[in-house]
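Hello, quick one for you while I still have it in my head. Could you read through the record and tell me how the tokens relate to the sequence? No rush at all, and the record is pasted right below.
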Amino acid sequence: MKRNLLIGALAAAAGLSAGAASAATLDDVKAKGFVQCGVATGVPGFAYTEASGEWTGFDVAVCRAVAAAVFGDAQAVKFTPTTGKTRFTALASGEIDMLARNTTWTFSRDVDLKFTFIGVNYYDGQGFMVPRALGVTSAKELDGATVCIQTGTTTELNLADYFRVNGMSYEPVPIETNAEAQQKYLANACDVYTTDASGLAATRSTFEAPKDHVILPEIISKEPLGPLVRHGDSEWGDVVRWAFNAMVIAEELGVTSENVAEMAKGTDNPEINRMLGSEGEYGAMLGLPADFAVKVISSVGNYGEVFNEFIGPDTAIGLERGLNAQWTQGGLLYAPPFR
């Protein structure tokens, strides 16, 4: 009997402890009045600063969506630039509340490093960029090349695997940031720059003569990129996850930054009503206002609006939706329902 009571007491204590841990980040964020978000040091279209010094971009929008969900203010966020080496330490140590910077969801990062990826905001794959003058048309022609590669990334490991499988050799030129890679690549310190294909397109868009550089056709890996939080942060993870999901579902259902205020009054679509807070108690389940998704969409936009603004076909980066199209349009973009 005593043993059973002891086990029950320990289980109850563990439950209370776990509950406190899971609520900690959301409570801390509310107390300090802003979200501290880790981003890249600078990638055109994804995370960069404008002349005013304000952070903007496709990944930055996720940070702002979370701030809008929690505070009703997309500006209630501060940014910490991180490199491939520093990003995980910053998150694990609590220096940042969340990370939103071209980071690949992998087994070891999920399980061993104990992070929780809340979804995929960009389906990508690793590619190669070379000067057109080299006359290279395939990655399999890169035997003996010098390659600019960011350290501490899956890119570094994928590169080693690809060259080994294809019986080729290469000389790595280690770099830490995209800016450093661009500098060395343009200075001919390496023959090739390899990173996520989206990052290559973003970098090339800043060159004086983008057409003088070729992104080779081979995509050598799966790179599901997405925001992440620490393990043990279930409540906070849900907030980040559903702030992002609201952007995805909004595009699917035709809810935009222009019409969301009108739709929030009520529609004939129960899914829209649940998401926008005119039906159910979904905001309260997250510890957020009923109209949290309205704040996200009105201030940041739906997924498609954000994609088109920062990295889409009509931008200098010029990315097509491809795998990042909605599931109804032949892509992989899919969010669970509000129900």
